[in-house]
Amino acid sequence: MSKNKNKFAGESVEPNATPQDDVVITDDFAATADGETETPSAEQPTPEEEIARLQEDLAKEKKEYLFLMAEFDNFRKRTLKEKSEIIRNAGENVLKGLLPIVDDFERGLKAAAQAKDAATVDEGMQLIYNKLVKYLAANGVKEFDPADDVYDADRHEAISVVPVPDESQKGKILDTVEKGYMINDKVLRHAKVVVGQ
């Protein structure tokens, strides 16, 4: 009889072979129907070698993990340091921009002490004030809209409530004691106001 070729194993199989002749393949050992086992091939490591290899892999992974943790800790410390420097330097730049205005005030005070005309002193103070307001606006600071006369608890602080006879005046701002300011659409200082009740 002719033998059929097994395409996977490359072995020949008798067409009328009985199940006792078949070989069962397991992960590490080949067992025959007789119960005999074949020894593992020379390519497979022994359990001791496998344990040693796994221990080496574990030590390597542990070392890499510790290295990454140290790198992350250094990154975190460096980021905190850079952030604090940015905040400190931002304040430094703002204060540095105010120094020319302080110089103008000093010159204005000297001139006011010697001036005989109040109009010139007033004009000088107005120029310094305009310069300060312009500087604040350049840094994103602006006052609340003075035409806004409706009380808003998010932007205003009511320091006094006054009874009003007119219903249309209730909840409206009657007087602004201290102006409120915003910086980049966020409240920097609440306006202190008198509200009608």
Written account of the structure:
The structure is a single chain. By secondary structure, the chain is α+β, with helices and mostly antiparallel strands. The protein has a domain at 144-197: Head domain of nucleotide exchange factor GrpE (Nucleotide Exchange Factor Grpe, Chain A, domain 2), CATH 2.30.22. It is 45% helix and 20% strand. The chain is built from two helices and ten strands. It has helices spanning 47-114, 118-138, and strands at 4-5, 12-13, 23-25, 30-32, 141-143, 156-162, 173-178, 181-183, 186-189, 191-196. The strands form four sheets. It has a three-stranded antiparallel sheet. It has a three-stranded mixed sheet with strand order 6-10-7, with no helix packed on it. A hairpin with a 4-residue loop joins strand 3 and strand 4 (30-32). Helix 1 (47-114) packs antiparallel against helix 2. The longest helix has 68 residues, at 47-114. The termini are far apart. Residues 5-10 have low confidence and may be disordered.
Comma- or semicolon-separated keywords:
about 200 residues; Nucleotide Exchange Factor Grpe, Chain A, domain 2; 3-stranded antiparallel β-sheet; about 20% strand; alpha+beta; 10 strands; elongated; single chain
| Secondary-structure element series | EEEEHHEEEEEE
The CATH architecture term of one domain is: Roll
Q: State the major sheet.
A: 3 strands, antiparallel
Number of strands: 10
Indicate the structural class: alpha+beta
Radius of gyration: 44 Å
Query: Uncertain runs with pLDDT below 50, 5 residues or more?
Result: 5-10
CATH topology type of one domain: Nucleotide Exchange Factor Grpe, Chain A, domain 2
Please list the strands of the largest sheet in the order they lie side by side: 5-8-9
Highest-level CATH class of one domain: Mainly Beta
**Mass-distribution shape:** elongated
Distance from first to last alpha carbon: 114 Å
Strand content: 15-25%
Q: What's the number of helices?
A: 2
The helix content is 40-55%
Mean pLDDT: 81
